Amino acid sequence: MRRAMSYVAPWAGVTALAVALSWLGVRGVVRGAVSERSAPPPIAGPIIHSSPPVPTDIGSPTSRPSPPAGEDRAPKPSKSPKAPPGGHETDTPDPKPPDNVRSYATRGGRAAMSVEKDRVRLVSATPNAGYETRVTQADGWLRVDFLDDERTSSVIATWHEGDPAVKVYEY
């Protein structure tokens, strides 16, 4: 019995040491595989291969020519067009966005969404320099991905199981 124990004890010790060393070697791979499963799966959709335009130079202001001498400088009255119903003029430069538009900033860009009680609509998706945009939509959800070679930023809106919810993922 002692002789059998003298073989089993070293064998058990060496086996435990081998298992511990093996676990230390593969735990990074296992952790990476598990974290990939917990991230939302990539979904195919149209890819927009453009970045927002960057102005290279700003032009100088233009000046109006002065009228010839002896001519009246005052503006001439003109017939004003009728205002549209509701009292708003049509030539307002930037209308105020509705209160339900929300903007989500990510590492890869900015997505603006109109969040309503029973749906979410994409207003704009602007990628940062070096990123591409992919937008995918189906019944009950909307996904905006900002992709580059190494990173992905996602804004995912769901509304099929109740009130709309928007989540941002960076991976």
E-strand count: 8
Rg calculated over all Cα atoms: 31 Å
Helices and strands: which structural class?
alpha+beta
Number of domains: 2
* Poorly predicted residue ranges: 54-61
Assembly type: single chain
**Average residue pLDDT:** 74
The neighbouring-strand order within the major sheet is: 1-5-6-7-8
- What distance separates the N and C termini? 57 Å
The total count of helices amounts to: 1
What kind of sheet is the major sheet?
5 strands, antiparallel
What's the shape? Answer: elongated
Give the SSE order as H and E letters: HEEEEEEEE
Helix content: 10-25%
Strand content: 25-35%
Characterise this structure.
The protein has 171 residues and is of the alpha+beta class. The chain folds into 2 domains: 1-38; 42-50 and 97-171, no CATH class. The chain is 22% helix and 29% strand. The chain has one helix at residues 2-38; strands at 47-48, 101-105, 109-115, 120-127, 132-138, 141-147, 152-158, 165-170. It has a 5-stranded antiparallel sheet with strand order 1-5-6-7-8, with no helix packed on it. It has a 3-stranded antiparallel sheet with strand order 2-3-4, with no helix packed on it. The protein is elongated. Mean pLDDT is 74; it is low at 54-61.
